[in-house]
Structures are given as C-alpha cells and as structure tokens.
C-alpha cells in the first residue's frame, strides 16, 4: 500500500518491525485542546460523529500532534443500534441514553439489519481521512462487539451491573440469540463498508465482556465474535475484550491477528495463555500517565521489555482518561518510539 | 458456643460438615417485602443503618424467611469514613455521595481514627441481633477493605473508572499510604468492637479491588488487608476481593480462613491457585436467579459438585440483585441444603 509508516500493520501480521508501534485508545478526544475546540463549536458529540469533515479532522489530530503510528476513525460504537432503529442521545457527563430499548421478541423483529449505507457519515469520514492522511499511517476502523451492543440495547444506558441485559440471557435466550445475530450481521456489513472506504485494520471492542461468567461468554459473545473474525479477511483484526481474562484461551482461537489486553492482565501470563501466534496490544494502566515523566518512562520501558519487540502494539489498557496532560501522553509515545529492544 | 447451626463456622475452619452452608450477600435487603416494609417506614437507608432495633430486625429476616445458615449484620461499609469525619448521603437510585472528599495531606491529618464507640449504633445492633438470634445461626460482621473505602473518600461517590482515586496513587503515594493506614486502624478498632459485641465471623469487602493493576494491588491494598487479617485472630475472617483474579495467589497468603470468589473466577482454577488451606465462598452468577427453577437447581448443583463438600460456603458471586424473586432465592438455598455430595 506504500505507507510511510506501516509498523502497526506489520506488527499485527507478526512481521519484522524496527520498533514497537504505538497508538492510544481515545487518542482522538478530550485530551487534546484542538479536539475540544472542534467539539465545542458544535451542539454535541453526535454532531461531530455525523459530520464527516470534522470527524476526519479530529481523527487526524493525534497523528499530527502526538505522533502516533495509527489513526482511529472518530465515531462511536452506538451508531450500530441507531442504524438498526434505536436512536440514542449522548448526555453530557452521563453517557448514552436510549429512548426505546429492546424488551420483547417483537422489538427484535422490528429492528432492521443495518447496511454500510445506513452509516454513510462514518464511511464518508473514512474516505476523507484516508485522503488527508495521504498514507502517512494506517487507519483503524472499529465496531462494538455484539454482546456489548446488545447490553446497551437492553439497558438503554450504561450500568454498573448490566443486570437487565444479563437477565435476558437467562430468561429469554432465544430472543438474545436473535438480537445478537442481527447485531452481528449489521456489524459485518458496517465493517466491510469501512474496509472498502479505506480502513486498514479493524478493532472490535467488547467493552462489557468482563461482566459475563466464563460459561455465558462462550455462549453469548464468542460465537458472534467468531462470525465477525471469520467474515473479515481483508485486513488485520484486533479483538479487545475488556475484563475477559477468563476467555483468553478461547479468544486465542479466533481468526484474528491481535488480542487487546487491559491493565489487569499480566503480560507474560497472557502470552503463555494466548500463545505466539497472535500480536498483543496494550496494556499500560491509563493512570500511569498521571505520574511523573520519569515514572511514565520507567513503567513504559518495563512494559516494552516484558512484551518484547515482535508481536506487540503498544497502547494503554483502556482509553486514555480525558483529564490526562497531552505532554504526558507524548512522553509515553516518545518512550515507545525511542526504546531499543 | 452451642449454636444450633454452626456449619458456616466449621466450614470456615476446614472442619467436617454434614452439608455445605449457604448465605447470600445482600440477603438482608430489598429482595424481601418484609425489608421494604421496614425501610419504607423510615426517611432513608441511613436511618435504618443507625437504628439498632430495626437494623437487627432486618438482619434476622432472612434467617426466618429464607432459612440461610448465617445472618450478616445490616450496615454499610461507608460508616467508617463517616466515623472518621466524612459524612455521606445515600441518594436514592444513585448511591452514596460525600459532600467533602480527601484532596490534600491536610485533609488526611484532620481525619480522626475511628473507634468502636464512634459506631455504637452498629455495635448495639449486633448485641440486639445476637440476643434475638438466640444462637440459631452465627452472625457475620463486616467492613470495607481499606482500598475500597479510600476510593470513596477520594471520589466522593461511585465511579466507573475510579480514576481520581487511582490518580492519587500515582501523584501522591505518601498521602495515599497515610490515608490507607488511618482507614486500616479505624477498621481494626471497628471490627474488634463487632467481635466483642458478638460477631462470629468477619468479612472484608474489597469491592473495587478489580480496578487496580496487579502491581498496585500489591502496594496499596494487600499490606492493609494483611494488617487487618493479622489483627483479627478471635474469629474466622473472609476476604472478598471482587475482580482481583490476578491477586488470588497473594490473597491465599493472608492469615484468613476464607476467600470469596466472584462469578468470573473459575472454581477449579481458583482452588488450584489458592491451595487447600482456605475455604472458598461463592460464586454463582446472581443472574442465574432470574432463570427457571430447574435451571437454578441445575447450575447450583453444578457449582456444589465443582467446589466439593468441604471448605466451601455457598453464596452468589456478588450481592443478590434487588429485583430477584425471593422464591428463586429460596430455590437456591434449598438446593444447597438438600444436596448430597
């Protein structure tokens, strides 16, 4: 493809790299004053998601300002339920809120299977971003994992326990599977559209993986992750199942290139469980970026040493917290980029 | 002591039992209409905590109504910060809220080390409960783990990430240790008072254990848990560190009798990591109680079979959810009580 910097693609594929590539989850976001300036000129978060030129602009900001080795398209995992028929609001400081939720089989039947056309604002944002990036670094596309999207569609908002969503798995497993399948079909359509538009890697976020029991994760999340991984063969795929430490051995069986680790997951232990055929991504505690520069350097180097040079994409173990000093983020990035294995 | 039913004490100590004992976290609570009747007659949750006669009444309800093998004193882990000088409100449907939080070393210095006398309402509730229980079953006393209490004292409320509390560990580790020590000293005073008043077992709840990295858990939680376990030699101690799967091998080194498991933790895996010298408590997914009676029986039996007869105290892997049908709770309890190993 002729990227000036294709480190992340080569690392995902297990090829040789000169150094470890680095990017941050939520790098296009509130940590950057330049992002906040764009965001504050609009009515809300969703307007930014749905305005391709501006979404592209904030996607590219961290490449220019922080020097990361990949861009990730600015969007939201909840565009999928919206495209299926459930609109949501992003309530300031509280998170997403759905007016209508899924409570019956009839609700599921009424949902449409989304196509890439239904999400043309993100597809268009990807096209603009690709053009403006001009092959400097690869672009990551993404979607939520079906289980995580399902949780929001049942609960209607975030939750500490997601017990309504989990209740549904016990009381109406058939409804759950039908909904999960519709989400999966929609997600595959969407991701294929992202790839056609130019996404070079795909990441699947299973943000609420950690609230399922190991048994239920196998039944209600894994088969749908598998369908997505099997369907996406065009580009490397990363699966980040936050909190699903118990599922690392089965995640390792997925046809994906990279497994994301959160900061609770031991690096060496994860490598032993997952084996040598996957790239690992992560996993510095985002709170380390609140520490002194010398402490950030120390902990980043320790992380890099433990992962080793090949098959590692440096990142935090979760999205960067909004109140993190951008200079501390740069310290993390520069430490990775200058590290000699 | 001459209990009619001392199964839980014997199981905690690794002695022989005729059958597995069973109780539920949050058994004295909103699942019972009889609890809601008492609660609704008052101005709020805290009035119930602070009225010994009524706290004793709701403590005993699940013994009478559900047939559990232990009572747990009705109280709240946040009585400790309040006794130290930070008052809180319990906001309906939102959880605890502290008007003032700890932000500086000066704030820490101003806090007092709580004594059992500062928490006389709970001590009195324990005395009344013991009298009314009349040795039918043992009474569990409890407190929050220092790390969990620390989190609330910094954040001032619940949080998805507890990033303010975790930030403090990186930016002001000395302040953190001083505060954790004051909480620990207060907690030991409180627990000693509970034991003198009649508590037969002590449980330490480290509810936010799972948001720390393995390294930070060793530094900021474990030493304080150790101090508490070392100080409490009078009665069996249970440590429930929710989400701290990564710390099971070090939790096993504590001088306690029982380790609580959440529903993410594999039973056999946990036994292998923790060894045979601890009793394990847990760990059915609370959402299983939303399933059919036959499914509850099936999953409960499967759990009992996997744990084995000795060194197991049956429980859920988290507090029972408030909207659970009490008849489903009874089904869980009866299944445990009638199970033939």
Number of domains of chain A: 1
The total count of helices of chain A amounts to: 16
CATH architecture of chain A: Alpha-Beta Barrel
Which secondary-structure class do the elements of chain A indicate?
Answer: alpha/beta
Strands of the biggest beta sheet of chain A: in what spatial order?
A: 1-4-5-6-7-8-9
Strand content of chain A: 5-15%
What is the arithmetic mean of pLDDT of chain A?
A: 97
Low-confidence stretches of chain A: none
CATH topology of chain A: TIM Barrel
| Radius of gyration based on Cα positions of chain A | 19 Å
How would you name the oligomeric state of the polypeptide chains in this document?
A: homodimer
| Helix proportion range of chain A | 40-55%
Termini separation of chain A comes to 27 Å
Q: Describe the sheet with the most strands of chain A.
A: 7 strands, parallel
Which CATH class of chain A applies here?
Answer: Alpha Beta
What is the H-and-E element order of chain A?
A: HHHHEHEEHHEHHHEHHEHEHEHEH
Biggest interface, CB < 8 A: A-B, 32 and 32 residues
Overview of the structural elements:
- The first copy, chain A, is of the alpha/beta class and 341 residues long.
- Chain A has a single domain (7-338), classed as TIM Barrel.
- Chain A is 47% helix and 12% strand.
- Chain A has 16 helices and nine strands.
- Chain A has a seven-stranded parallel β-sheet. A two-stranded antiparallel ribbon of chain A has the order 2-3.
- In chain A, helix 8 (146-155) crosses helix 9 (163-171), helix 8 (146-155) packs across helix 10 and helix 10 packs parallel to helix 12 (222-231).
- Chain A is globular and about 60 Å long.
- The two termini of chain A are 27 Å apart.
- The model of chain A has no long low-confidence stretch (mean pLDDT 97).
- The A-B interface holds A 158, 160-161, 163, 166-167, 169-171, 210, 212-214, 216, 243, 245-246, 263-266, 285-288, 290-291, 295, 317-318, 321, 323 and B 158, 160-161, 163, 166-167, 169-171, 210, 212-214, 216, 243, 245-246, 263-266, 285-288, 290-291, 295, 317-318, 321, 323.
């Amino acid at each position: 493809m002729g990227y000036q910097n294709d480190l992340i693609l080569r690392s995902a594929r297990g090829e040789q790299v000169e150094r470890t590539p680095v990017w941050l989850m939520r790098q296009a976001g509130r940590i950057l004053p330049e992002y906040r300036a764009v965001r504050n000129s609009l009515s809300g978060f969703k307007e930014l998601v749905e305005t391709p030129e501006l979404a592209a602009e904030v996607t590219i900001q961290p490449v220019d300002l922080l020097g990361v080795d990949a861009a990730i398209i600015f969007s939201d995992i909840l565009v999928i339920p919206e495209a299926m028929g459930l609109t949501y609001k992003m309530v300031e400081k509280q998170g997403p809120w759905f007016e209508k939720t899924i409570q019956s089989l009839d609700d599921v039947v009424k949902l449409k299977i989304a196509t890439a056309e239904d999400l043309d604002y993100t597809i268009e944002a990807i096209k603009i971003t690709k053009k403006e990036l001009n092959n400097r670094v690869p672009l990551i596309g993404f979607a939520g994992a079906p289980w995580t999207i399902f949780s929001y569609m049942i609960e209607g908002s975030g939750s500490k326990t997601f017990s309504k969503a989990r209740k549904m798995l016990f009381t109406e497993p058939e409804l759950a599977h039908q909904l999960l399948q519709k989400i999966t079909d929609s997600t595959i359509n969407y991701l294929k559209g992202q790839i056609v538009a130019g996404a070079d890697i795909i990441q699947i976020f299973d943000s609420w993986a950690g609230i399922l029991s190991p048994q239920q994760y196998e039944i209600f999340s894994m088969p749908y992750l598998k369908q997505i991984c099997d369907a996406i063969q065009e580009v490397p795929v990363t699966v980040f199942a936050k909190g699903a430490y118990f599922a690392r051995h089965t995640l390792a069986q997925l046809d994906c290139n990279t497994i994301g680790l959160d900061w609770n997951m031991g690096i060496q232990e994860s490598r032993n469980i997952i084996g040598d055929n996957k790239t690992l991504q992560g996993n510095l505690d985002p709170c380390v970026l609140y520490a002194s520069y010398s402490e950030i350097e120390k902990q980043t180097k320790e992380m890099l040493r433990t992962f080793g040079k090949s098959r590692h994409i440096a990142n935090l173990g979760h999205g960067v917290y909004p109140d993190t000093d951008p200079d501390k983020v740069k310290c993390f990035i520069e430490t990775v980029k200058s590290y000699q294995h």
